[in-house]
Specification:
By secondary structure, the protein is an alpha+beta fold. It is built from six helices and eleven strands. The chain has a single domain, classed as Aminopeptidase (3-Layer(aba) Sandwich). Strands 1, 4, 5, 6, 7, 8, 9, 10 and 11 form a nine-stranded mixed beta sheet that branches. Strands 2-3 form a two-stranded antiparallel sheet. Strand 2 and strand 3 form a beta hairpin. Helix 3 packs antiparallel against helix 5. The longest helix has 21 residues. The radius of gyration is 16 Å and the shape is globular. Belongs to the autoinducer synthase family. Pfam families: Autoind_synth. InterPro entries: Acyl_CoA_acyltransferase, Autoind_synthase.
Length: about 210
């Protein structure tokens, strides 16, 4: 299950958001050594604003455990692709009211199984498309590292590189844009073996427990 958390319902999911930021700190700062802002035991930056949308993966059945998360940013305001990764695009990075950026995909550091981590990536990819369709978004952009790039390019949606692959410390990054369409969602679901919607949007905790 992927929870859609935004300005309308974020007050219902404060514990999940706190855990998401804690996991991001462990994964990106403690393990990968990113030089990004930290507040206590949480990784929080300027793009974590009140109007930011998050996707939070949880187990079905009401468990409080956060399994994975991702961040969705409108490109009409400052975002990573233009602020930090403009050199990864051969031309100007796509932006507009119907283009979102996906960033900070993070799997719980407690999950060691590679298979489970990939399953969560697939589920989150479906969640991104479902959420984008819900809000009338036509494209999403993201920066993929060496491990994520082939998985993102092969999951079934129509996508393309925006520029060359660039070195990034001990890793490398590639800017990507993906089209958001109902046909693309069906293709991704078929490719990944997902046969039903994965996202949930709740304005009360009763709906999540049902």
């Amino acid at each position: 299950m992927i929870l859609i958390v935004n300005a309308e319902n974020r007050s219902l999911f404060v514990p999940e958001l706190i855990e998401m930021h804690r996991q991001r700190k462990v994964v990106f700062v403690d393990k990968q050594g990113w030089n990004v802002p930290v507040i206590g035991d949480m990784e929080v930056d300027d793009y974590d604003a009140e109007d930011t949308t998050y996707l939070i993966a949880k187990a079905d059945g009401g468990s409080a455990e956060v399994l994975a998360s991702a961040r969705l940013l409108p490109t009409v305001r400052p975002h990573l692709m233009t602020d930090l990764f403009a050199n990864a695009c051969e031309r100007r990075a796509p932006r507009g009211p119907r283009i979102w950026e996906v960033s900070r995909f993070c799997v719980s550091p407690a999950i060691a199984s590679r298979r489970k981590r990939i399953e969560l990536l697939w589920e989150t990819a479906c969640g991104v498309i479902e959420t984008a369709l819900l809000y009338g978004v036509q494209k999403v952009t993201f920066v993929a590292n060496a491990a994520l790039l082939p998985l993102a390019l092969e999951c079934g949606w129509k996508c393309a590189r925006l520029g060359p692959t660039l070195p990034d410390g001990d890793d490398e990054i590639t800017a990507v844009v993906a089209s958001i369409t109902p046909n693309g969602l069906r293709a991704v679901r078929r490719r990944l073996g997902i046969d039903a919607p994965v996202t949930r949007f709740a304005l009360s905790t009763v709906k999540i427990a049902a």
